[in-house]
Design goal:
Keywords: Hydrolase. This protein has 184 residues and is an alpha/beta fold. It contains 5 helices and 8 strands.
Length: 184
């Protein structure tokens, strides 16, 4: 694993994710953990991909031209880092991400960002299905509270934990920031 490049994929770390309008979330330390991973990857010269959601809905917090669609300054891409723009949750759909990774011989991915049960889970499922060795970093991702299909309110921690459980083993390995740093 250590002799080949491992890409850090940073999903949807846009300004609107810091807005109270986004909802009640978990993992308040996620941004710091993403920052730690991002700088470790940069220091090691590892490949970094930033994914940005650009909604087709003009009322979305992610709508192009809205301040919320911009990257969070502390996690913004450098000029030499690859940026993927998507308009569905999955970073692989209608983007050049898979080809970009294959051209560079990248077969292992470390995924961080938001939200665990939406764009992170969708992208990790596809990555796993495409044969990438995929890691989702549990403390560098976060989710928002929501009602389940039966109408029962679920906390952000519950939504996050269930999403990680959905991914674990079949699509991805789940690990904490400290362990993910060892993949460099």
């Amino acid at each position: 694993m250590h002799n080949e490049p491992t890409a850090l994929i940073v999903i949807d770390m846009q300004q609107c994710m810091q807005s109270p309008a986004a909802g009640v979330r978990n993992n308040p330390e996620a941004e710091q953990n993403i920052h730690t991973l991002l700088h470790a990857w940069r220091d090691a010269g590892g490949p970094v991909v930033h994914v940005r959601h650009m909604s087709r809905s003009p009322t979305s917090l992610f709508s192009p031209g809205q301040p919320g669609a911009a990257f969070q300054p502390a996690l913004a891409p450098l000029d030499d880092e690859y940026v993927v723009e998507k308009n569905v949750p999955d970073a692989f759909i209608h983007t050049g991400l898979e080809r970009w990774l294959h051209v560079r011989g990248i077969r292992q991915l470390v995924i961080v960002g938001v939200s665990t049960n939406n764009s992170v889970e969708a992208s990790a499922r596809t990555a796993g299905n495409l044969g990438f060795r995929t890691v989702v970093v549990s403390d560098a991702t976060f989710a928002f509270g929501q009602k389940d299909y039966a109408g029962v309110p679920r906390s952000a921690d519950e939504v996050h934990a269930m999403s990680l459980a959905n991914l674990n083993g079949e699509y991805a390995s789940i690990m904490a920031t400290a362990d993910a740093l060892n993949l460099l």
